[in-house]
Amino acid sequence: MFAIYVLIFCNIRSKRKNTSNLCAESGHERKCAIATNKYERMMLNQAVFVCGAMEIQIICFNYLSKLAIKLAGKEVAISVNILTNCLVIFTASVLPTANLIFVKRFRKRVKQAFVELLFKIKTAKTMSTVVPIIAPITVKKTHQIS
Fold first, then answer.
1. Which segments cross the bilayer (predicted)?
2. Domains in the chain: how many in total?
């Protein structure tokens, strides 16, 4: 995973060089350089966040159970396995969380999806509470003649 982030970072660096050359020609060098620096920082923060969580998972998955069983005995094996499973779930949630924190476009899309969902819920709720008004039916009373 970290190797993929290194490749992405190298791609950003090459784009930065191309962008800085174009900005220097057009006279917008400072503004473009600031935007690219911010993007690089965000990408590095995201890489550290995701790869750090993955390293913690690998260490815990490979060594925690063995170490705990050596120190405390077989009684803690179930507890350690539960903890390891919780760490796997945590690691699976790290990438979407990192995207939500670091990627502005992702935040906007999530916000838009929530607004649309709330609108659909509100519309469905108002549709179900509206009762159609039916005109009263008049019934003629008839008497039997005997």
1. 47-64, 76-102
2. 1
Q: Give the predicted TM-score (pTM) of the model.
A: 0.54
The predicted-structure confidence for 52-96, as pLDDT tens digits, reads as follows 888 888 888 888 888 888 888 888 888 888 888 888 888 888 888
Q: Which of 102, 106, 110 is nearest to 46 (CA)?
A: 102
Q: Is residue 108 part of a domain?
A: yes
Query: Is 143 inside a domain boundary?
Result: no
Q: Look at residue 48 and tell me if it is in a domain.
A: yes
Which residue range(s) make up the domain with 66?
A: 2-128
Task: List, as one string, the DSSP characters of the chain.
Answer: -HHHHHHHHHHHHHHHHHHHHHHHHHT-HHHHHHHHHHHHHHHHHHHHHHHHHHHHHHHIIIIIHHHHHHHH-GGGHHHHHHHHHHHHHHHHHHHHHHHHHH-HHHHHHHHHHHHHHHHHHHHHHHHHHPPPP-PPPP--------
